[in-house]
Design a protein that fits this description.
The protein is mainly alpha-helical. The protein folds into 2 domains: about 120 residues, Orthogonal Bundle (Helix Hairpins); about 110 residues, Iron/manganese superoxide dismutase, C-terminal domain (minor pseudopilin epsh fold, 3-Layer(bab) Sandwich), CATH 3.55.40.20. Helix content is about 50%, strand content about 10%. The protein is built from 9 helices and 3 strands. A 3-stranded antiparallel beta sheet has the order 2-1-3, with helices on both faces. The longest helix has about 30 residues. The radius of gyration is 18 Å and the shape is globular. The two termini are about 20 Å apart.
Length: about 240
């Protein structure tokens, strides 16, 4: 895993990530490619480009929010992950693990932040991308939740009621081979081992506050208009269908 986390590092922070499978695929894909140019550590990662113009999500999410969210917040998690990996590399070289508890926490926080933000930006698009899913994901939603309407009501309620800052998450659980809806406080709390996030709703205030202020529920309701279910389907086929 030269281009991603050392497997032991992933496991050390994995209780916070809930996506061991997707981490392995993600960090060895073009999504967050290692930016190794022969001068820096091979495990360094770079911020993936925004897959659409900054104003593409208008009027659901304003251009300035997208610009700050992607260019500042997402970038900060990538930077934090790289910094933590550098510190872990230094600790291994010096055989000094006095700070391993704090480093494991930072690895979990930043690693989870990178994964969830990558999924967030990669599975939304212009408002016309909304609507209902089709294909395998649509079939599984009907099987596991009864109907798309029931699924969305549960997902929206989970996203609206996360305590503090966090996420609403639609995930594939390999253990049960079913779709599940989860809440995550911060990025890494209240997660489930082995669940692979497929679509997420970022309900940290920086994702919506400029436009919606404290009206999280309104933001979540409008979020349905920008989910690109074709991309969710692509992620399901790539990361889950063959698992």
């Amino acid at each position: 895993m030269e281009k991603g986390m050392n497997r032991r590092e992933v496991i050390a922070g994995a209780g916070a990530v809930a996506a061991l499978g997707i981490l392995s695929n993600l960090f060895n894909s073009e999504a967050v490619a290692a930016s190794h140019d022969g001068e820096g550590p091979a495990f360094m990662h770079k911020l993936p480009p925004l897959p659409y113009p900054e104003d593409a999500l208008e009027p659901v999410i304003d251009k300035e929010t997208v610009k700050i969210h992607h260019g500042k917040h997402f970038a900060a998690y990538v930077g934090g992950l790289n910094t933590t990996l550098e510190k872990l590399e230094k600790a291994r070289k010096e055989s000094n693990f006095d700070s391993i508890k704090a480093l494991s926490r930072d690895l979990a926080f930043n690693g989870s932040g990178v994964v969830l933000h990558w999924i967030y930006f990669a599975t939304i698009g212009p408002p016309q991308a909304g609507g209902a899913p089709t294909g395998a994901v649509a079939d599984l939603i009907k099987r596991d939740f009864g109907s798309f309407e029931t699924f969305w009501n549960q997902f929206a309620a989970a996203s609206k009621t996360v305590e503090g800052s966090g996420w609403g998450i639609l995930a594939w659980e390999p253990f049960s081979k079913r779709l599940v809806i989860m809440q995550a406080e911060i990025h890494q709390d209240l997660t489930s081992w082995g669940a692979m996030p497929l679509m997420v709703c970022d309900v940290w205030e920086h994702a919506y506050y400029l436009k919606y202020q404290n009206r999280r529920a309104e933001y979540v309701d409008n979020f349905a208009k920008i989910i690109d279910w074709k991309k969710v389907e692509d992620h399901f086929k790539k990361y889950c269908a063959a698992k």
